[in-house]
Specification:
Number of helices: 7
Strand content: 15-25%
Number of domains: 2
Structural class: alpha+beta
CATH architecture of the largest domain: Alpha-Beta Barrel
Radius of gyration: 21 Å
CATH class of the largest domain: Alpha Beta
Strand order of the largest sheet: 1-6-7-5
Number of strands: 10
Bound molecules: zinc ion
């Protein structure tokens, strides 16, 4: 499952080709992905210009010039491939990934040049998804925040809104473990298992500690939640700068693998020495709510 930094990396990779471009033609090569495509999907998208490409949690939002938003989710194994005159020269991973997976190319956007009045297609963005857990929906921009996908969604973990005071409000009186509270999408949206493990390790906080334990006016608690909020933003931002992250199925929009996985400090490092200076502990794995938690019991309290 791609995590938020990967989706943000995908957004940044697609934006130069998509923003300001007109969808000259939309090809759907099957009737559905995880869900059926929207009614008259091609008709509604073709001819529209993409005003902006943004992201909310792990959803990509392409604002069309008629007020509809094309909402896209990558599911487990979805990826986008940009093909234009320049990118066709990219060697290595790109060519390999493309030829291997062509039978899983399900949706093809044929795009005009961004900002151009010409309707000649100069680029293609191809959605590929072997396992087909991804999906696409059309939602009016005016109804987006009240749409079932977004109505109960918590705040974005990237950006200045997430700070210690916000965590104080979200976690107040909560006896659930910090790990579970941070994964609760109704509180903070788009934060996944890997980055919760990393942020807790970086903050020196035990994943089993009650979330409400870092709330309240005491100076020590205030420092802990400030540290946690900063750590969350840092691990996400570093992952984005490193090119996304992880997982077997996931590639950047240019086809190369993200490499942030090599710098995880806790996630996936069971049995390895903790990297906290002077700690001397060992990273352990435990299972919380059915998910692997990697942590250092020595320095995470
Ligand atoms: Zn440690």
């Amino acid at each position: 499952m791609p995590e938020l930094p990967e989706v943000e990396t995908v957004r940044r990779g697609l934006a130069p080709s998509l923003e300001g471009a007109r969808v000259v033609k939309l090809e759907c090569r099957r009737p559905d992905l995880r869900f059926p495509f929207p009614d008259r999907f091609c008709e509604r998208v073709e001819g529209r210009r993409v005003a902006a490409l943004s992201r909310r949690a792990k959803y990509l939002l392409a604002d069309l010039d008629d007020g509809e938003v094309l909402v896209m989710h990558l599911g487990m194994s979805g990826s986008f491939r940009v093909e234009d005159a320049e990118d066709s020269h990219l060697p290595g991973d790109f060519a390999h990934a493309r030829s291997k997976d062509e039978k899983h190319d399900h949706v093809v956007f044929h795009l005009s040049a961004p900002g151009s009045d010409s309707d000649a297609a100069v680029a293609r963005i191809v959605y590929n998804d072997p396992r087909r857990f991804g999906f696409m929906q059309m939602v009016p921009r005016a109804g987006l925040t009240s749409h079932p996908l977004f109505a109960a969604m918590g705040l974005e973990p990237l950006g200045n809104r997430l700070d210690g005071d916000v965590l104080d409000g979200l976690f107040r009186d909560k006896r659930t473990p910090l790990k579970a509270a941070l994964l609760d999408q109704r509180l903070i949206a788009g934060l996944g298992n890997i980055y919760v493990c990393e942020a807790l390790w970086r903050s020196g906080l035990s994943p089993q500690r009650a979330a409400g334990d870092i709330c309240g006016p005491q100076r020590g608690r205030r420092a802990l939640r400030e540290k946690l909020a900063l750590s969350i933003r840092e691990v996400l931002e570093e992952a984005i700068l490193a090119g996304g992250s992880t997982l077997r199925d996931h590639t950047q929009t240019d086809g190369t693998l993200g490499y942030f996985q090599h710098s995880f400090a806790a996630y996936g490092r069971e049995g390895e020495p903790c990297r906290t200076p002077g700690c001397g502990g060992t990273i352990e794995r435990m299972v919380q709510s059915g998910r692997s938690t990697f942590h250092c019991p020595t320095c995470q309290r």
